């Protein structure tokens, strides 16, 4: 019985009408990835684990070894390596940073990477080396403008050139959508990426102007708020048919969310390891036309509470 459940977890998640939705794992380490029975890929590897809590930056060899460990823990399935996402709220002793009154609106994510070009180049070279050995997607966090994305892509191209082995054939390039500006202008980013991955944790805090982790405004910061869903819809519309849209924020593991997100056009959900099997089961219960109708209703709902009631399993 346990074996049957395990086998089921390893099968693809296909909706009742035959649409495959990838279900990934969010991993903060190789040990995390190793517990993800049935994940189709790692949809988000938070590479910060290699950089925090130390006095100097990891070198290219150390990073490559760590990334290859994550891939091995997933049996060689695709890993999505998010480039360093730290900043004012998570300072690094070896990256100079000014104190900021509003670190979530300051130099974080890709903004910091672009200001620390040596640190960024080293990470990109390690990612490129890993991509020559195993399927890798690279993804940039906290992108607000197309110019930032193009600067990141130029740094990636420079790392590929420096490695001297050509473009790794299985390398895919994407960015996170966590800033409303990026969601609203998804069509302007789409020609430059293979995929977009919506980080609903940050997208929610920036949409509702309610700091994540601040209990006093936690009730406002609901990822099922119709305003956040409108930005998910805008992202899917802007992405068009050739660019896959994923969600890797915590809402992807919410029972109420799978049908809604798939109905809006999302085709990959990436969640913490213990949630993978359950999300696959939720996807298998989805009928795409019904999900699209549910999504339409949710977009017109007055508030998050109404959305939750609409989307509750068994509604
Ligand atoms: C997000 O913002 O939704 C996300 C997945 O990234 P993190 O939680 O690491 O900021
Ligand atoms: Mg984020």
Outline the structure in words.
- The protein has 315 residues and is α/β, with parallel strands linked by helices.
- It is 44% helix and 14% strand.
- It contains 14 helices and nine strands.
- An eight-stranded parallel beta barrel has the order 2-3-4-5-6-7-8-9, surrounded by six helices.
- Helix 2 (30-34) links the parallel strand 2 (20-27) and strand 3 (41-46).
- The longest helix is centred in the middle third of the chain and has 18 residues, at 146-163.
- The chain is globular, with a radius of gyration of 19 Å.
- The structure holds phosphoenolpyruvate (PEP) and magnesium ion.
- Phosphoenolpyruvate binds next to strand 3 and helix 9.
Task: Indicate the topology.
Blueprint: H1 2-10, E1 13-14, E2 20-27, H2 30-34, E3 41-46, H3 60-73, E4 79-82, H4 110-115, H5 117-133, E5 136-140, H6 146-163, E6 172-177, H7 180-184, H8 186-189, E7 195-198, H9 200-208, H10 226-239, E8 244-247, H11 257-264, E9 268-271, H12 276-284, H13 288-300, H14 304-311
Parallel strand pairs: 2-3, 2-9, 3-4, 4-5, 5-6, 6-7, 7-8, 8-9
Antiparallel strand pairs: 1-2
The gist of it:
With about 325 residues, the protein is an alpha/beta fold. It has 14 helices and nine strands. Strands 2-3-4-5-6-7-8-9 form an eight-stranded parallel beta barrel, surrounded by six helices.
Comma- or semicolon-separated keywords:
binds phosphoenolpyruvate, eight-stranded parallel β-barrel, 44% helix, alpha/beta, 315 residues, binds magnesium ion
Q: How would you sum up the global shape?
A: globular
Number of helices: 14
Q: How big a fraction of the residues is strand?
A: 5-15%
Quickly give the structural class: alpha/beta
Helix and strand sequence: HEEHEHEHHEHEHHEHHEHEHHH
Q: Write out the distinct hetero groups bound to the structure.
A: phosphoenolpyruvate, magnesium ion
Taking all residues together, what is the mean pLDDT? 95
Largest sheet: 8 strands, parallel, barrel
Strand order across the biggest sheet? 2-3-4-5-6-7-8-9
Helical percentage: 40-55%
What ranges have pLDDT less than 50 throughout 5 or more consecutive residues?
none
- Give the N-to-C terminal Cα separation: 30 Å
According to DSSP, the number of beta strands is: 9
Task: Supply Rg.
Answer: 19 Å
